[in-house]
Structure formats: structure tokens, C-alpha cells
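Section 5.1 Outputs to date
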Amino acid sequence: MNGGLCMLCKQGSKECENCHNRSLSLLTTKKGKLCMRCAATLGAMPIGIPGSEGLEAVEQIQIPHWLNKVLPKRLPKKVVGLAFNLTGDAEYGYELNLVGTPSYDPADTDWACDDVWSTKGCQFELPEGNWETTLERVISLLR
């Protein structure tokens, strides 16, 4: 797992100075240009983000940037519904990806299970932590 803003996809063009994984963007910290996971692990908060409140402020800026990079100009015609999936665990961190489904039914809790398109391989990675707290943070950031 590469963590934070690191993306193991061809769209990542910058390299974290600590873990050397490619990323769509890096945080400029006193410890160098780092992905979010390395910044969190090393306790290096970003420099130059007005009103920054740590990693949540960075995520608030970076999630829209990630979506702009991974969303195609046109979704496949088969895609009727979109859903965000959050996977992972407290020890190793979490991954947020977006899936496109051939149907949408708000009455069916499994409507997003049969995806026909996804951002897998280009997911947004979040640091380790409590599942409920991470889920609440992601929901608030996506609103």
C-alpha cells in the first residue's frame, strides 16, 4: 500500500521523497515533498495551505483533484449509477474508489455490487485509523 495521495497508476507523475511511490500530487512539508501517508507517519504537516487543519484539509483539497484525474470525459454507456466504496482496515489504511453500475435502486442495498466500471488501480488512499471515523470523514468530504 502506498498511502495517502500516492496512486499506483500511470497518471501519477510525481514521486514521494520518502517512499518513492508515484503520486498525483505531493504535500510540501518541512521534511520534503511527501505523499499523505508518509506525511502522516512522519508527523509532517503541509506548508502553505491557508486554514489547514492537518490531513482533513489536505483531503478536502485533494479528493476533487483525484476525481478530476480518474473520471473519464464520458462514462461507459452501461453505467447508470455511481457509488463510492471505502475498503481497508485500521492498521494498514483505507482506499476510496468509485464504481459505475449498470443499475440503481435506492431500495436495494446491494445495487452497487455489480460494477461495470471502476477506479480500481487508481484509488484515493487514506491513512490508517478508526473505521467509523474514517467513514464519517469521507462522507463529510464528499458532500
